[in-house]
Amino acid sequence: MFLGEYNYKLDEKGRVPVPPKFRGELRDGIILVPGPEKCIIAYTPEEWEKLSENMRTGTLAKDKIRKLNRALFSTAFHLNLDGQGRIALPVPLRTFAGIGEEVVITGANTYLEIWDKTLWEEEKTNSLAQAWQIIETL
After folding, report:
1. Residues 71-90: pLDDT tens digits?
2. Domain limits of the chain?
3. How many H-runs (helices) and E-runs (strands) does the chain carry?
């Protein structure tokens, strides 16, 4: 389970450290994809495989599966952490997420989210305002 919020700065090569407590879980790499909100979603290979399997065996119509496959797999990047525990965020994903110099990596249960710091502060405020209302409907 991924928990917490971690603030970093991109280096001149577009690299960002992965929080040290998560590096062991990501020793086999990390899969990055654009998220539904303006962020980058980071999956372990194991979680990515579960998502892929659910798409293959799910009950969605074939045309929806094809669109979903195109949207997710064509924009996904499989990266490995370097010797210092960093990943180089691909330019297309940085552009999509509006990531500047300051980055926030947040735990989101079974995956991580990578945000531009300003966009994260806005999203966090909105999410916190709605969280308890959502919990009470569970």
Report:
1. 889 999 999 999 999 999 99
2. 5-136
3. 4, 8
